[in-house]
Amino acid sequence: MPAGPTEPAPDPDPGPTPGAEEAAAASSAAKRDRVFLVVVDDSAERAVALKYACLRARKGGGRVALLRVIEPVGLVEWAGVGVLMQEERREEAEKLLSGLAAQVNEITGTLPILIIREGEARDALLALIEEDPRISILVLASATGGGGPGPLISALTGRYAAKLTVPMTIVPGALDDSELDRVT
Fold this sequence. Notes:
The chain is an alpha/beta fold. Helix content is about 45%, strand content about 15%.
């Protein structure tokens, strides 16, 4: 008696799953689009946060963004003096970011996004994160002294935590290069 219709044997190598290449490309693009934001202040820990962000961007894909917030000039008797002082602060910020951009490029192979804002650091940072959807992760380093983690970390983990809309990585400020390599 003849057997009924049989199903063909499964193909041993069916090839890529439909849509798998597109999903892999989208995942790769998402990693390239990930932006690690570092606040450029005058603390010693800034170098640790910057190095951590660079290593994460290089090893995991992504870019680094550098934010320098310059405080507005207080009241001065002559308006022209205030404008001149603000221009000097902006030039100093541009020079600092330019030097750090070279370091970022050396580690990651890409130039960072450079951002200068005026105002109070916490408010300028929160406004930037709200405005720029490219920012994926905020990277800060904790202070190494006994006086707490630092004013920005204290604010963003305390009273202003609910306003933060991206993950925040707090890097111990005392990590050296070998420890940074190990944890990234």
